[in-house]
Amino acid sequence: MQLAGRNIVLGVTGGIAAYKAAELVRLLVKEGASVQVAMTEAATNFVTPVTFQALSGKAVFTDQWDSRVANNMAHIDLSRAADALLVAPGSADFLAKLANGLADDLLTTLILARDCPLLVAPAMNRQMWDNPATRRNVASLRSDGVVILGPGCGDQACGETGPGRMLEAAEIVDEIVAHFQPKLLAGKRVLLTAGPTFEAIDPVRGITNLSSGKMGYAISRAAREAGAEVTLVSGPVCLPCPRGVTRIAVTSALQMHTAVLRRAADNDVFIAVAAVADYRPAQFIEQKIKKAQCPTPPTIELEQNPDILGEVAALPRPPLCVGFAAESEKLAEYAESKRRCKKIPLIAGNLIGDGFGGDHNTLVLFDDDGQHPLPPAPKIDLARQLVARIAALLEKRPC
Ligand code: PMT
Question: 220 and 269: one domain?
């Protein structure tokens, strides 16, 4: 329930993407938001108010002169109660009206009368999105402080392909959740590693581990929500890249090492969440090892991988370094010893049974002030708490 207690007014304008707004209402309500829908007349040609009423549990407003509002001030009443105003889909025509401050129906009027943030998810044909008039309108809305969500790129209802399609409902919900997070890392650059590494033995075999990448991806998302510019160096995982995060895909520890060391000095924070293989096969066998050609089981000689976190922490002007430790026992002892050995200010310890693979985790943070247990929670919640701790440490850090 990431939007519990939030009041959102959703403005639906006339475009085929209005059908996606129904799913959007469902997901916003599922996250705990109270959603009041207001539609333009054109929108009612695509989806009926009854659909939104059923999904939001609230009567829908379509008319400025709605007799349910005793003082005929629906535009004031609706906007004052809102924590945020979201327009999805935002048609080209509606963007033009907003950019020029028109107020000729309920939705434009309540937007003009608002005292809360306005987020707009545009949806239109690619040529309309590329039209200089639309570009001018979008630039002018941005400079007025309106948050423009997307648009996405891909197949369009008209049969063309390109930029202009509305973001998916789940992506818009993520953006709304992000919008409400405190901007603790605004202006900061954060570099992370996540996932496992894969150390190849031959073209089809290798050494890896059970890290899913979920913890590291959740932290990238939380850092981005907190306003940071985020670069994620990721081992091989099956997760979508969080929106607004730059992902660099790597396979082996050596590739991860190169990708991180190339960027570390330009970042304010480095968070090493990856389960990096400590060793790799000393030799890569070019052709697939054939059982028939090995009279006895083959022996694989290993050599040590570089310690990425240790090297970043030893840079002349290192970013604030945060490590992770997954242990099967003696969590405090082993995590604290890794923190001291790598000379880093903060390490997050987790037990192997809690951390690997699932959507939840339990963390204990170790820093110079001692231990800070973070009780079991979804990884995204823990990620936000970790980000808050990192922001506090950054504040204390001498420039
Ligand atoms: O991906 P999930 O399924 O969500 O699981 C998350 C996780 C359990 C993998 C994660 O929470 C975690 O604990 N990651 C660290 C795993 C670990 O124990 O790493 P380590 O003890 O080998 O290394 C300690 C620290 O040094 C880690 O920050 C690691 O990223 C870093 N390291 C290690 C070796 C190496 N060669 N280079 C490194 O940078």
Answer: yes
Q: Best substitution site from 197, 254, 273 to test ligand 1's pocket, by max atoms within 8 Å of Cβ? A: 273
Task: Round to whole Å and give the CA distance between 69 and 264.
Answer: 57
Residues 331 and 386 in one domain: yes
Q: What is the pLDDT of residue 76?
A: 75
Mutating to test ligand 1, I would choose from 309, 333, 350 the residue with most ligand atoms within 8 A of its C-beta, which is 309
Backbone angles phi, psi at 296, to 5 degrees: -125, 160
Residue 171 has pLDDT above 90, yes or no: yes
| 307 token code pair | 């310690």
> What angle do the packed helices 169-180 and 18-30 form, to 10 degrees?
50
**Number of CB atoms found within 10 A of residue 32's CB:** 12
Residue 118: give the domain boundaries: 7-179
| For residue 89, cis peptide bond before it (omega within 30 degrees of 0) | yes
For residues 198 and 252, give the distance between their C-alpha atoms in angstroms, rounded to a whole number.
Answer: 5
pTM for this entry: 0.93
> Checking DSSP bridges between strand 346-351 and strand 360-367, what pairing results, if any?
antiparallel
Element (H, E) at 200: strand 199-202
For this structure, is 158 an active site residue? yes
